[in-house]
Design goal:
single chain; 97 residues; mainly alpha; globular
Length: 97
């Protein structure tokens, strides 16, 4: 269901046409994502970052979460991966619209 880069293979109502990575990255830049986060992937997040499983689970159920208005809150001190995890969710959302 998930590849090493955190991409899912399930179908959903939001899945219209997946954008190629370059188009996704351009959309992320236009959204204000700093360049250093453009290459954020699950495979690049260290095992010590505690957000990986929560973010994967949230993305897996993204269509349902969006329709119900359920968000994801990430907390923790500086350097724990909150921004990178948020970019992974945003990347998946951008790829689907």
């Amino acid at each position: 269901m998930w590849d090493n880069d955190g991409n899912s293979s399930y179908s959903s109502p939001l899945k219209k046409q997946l954008l190629p990575d370059s188009a996704t990255e351009q959309a992320l830049l236009r959204s204000g994502v700093p360049k250093r986060y453009l290459k954020a992937r699950f495979s690049k997040i260290p095992e010590t970052v505690r957000y990986g499983d929560s973010v994967k689970s949230y993305i897996k159920s993204l269509p349902g979460h969006l329709s119900s208005g359920l968000g994801l809150i990430l907390t923790g001190p500086y350097g724990t991966g909150k921004t990178a995890a948020s970019v992974l969710v945003l990347r998946e959302l951008v790829r689907r619209i």
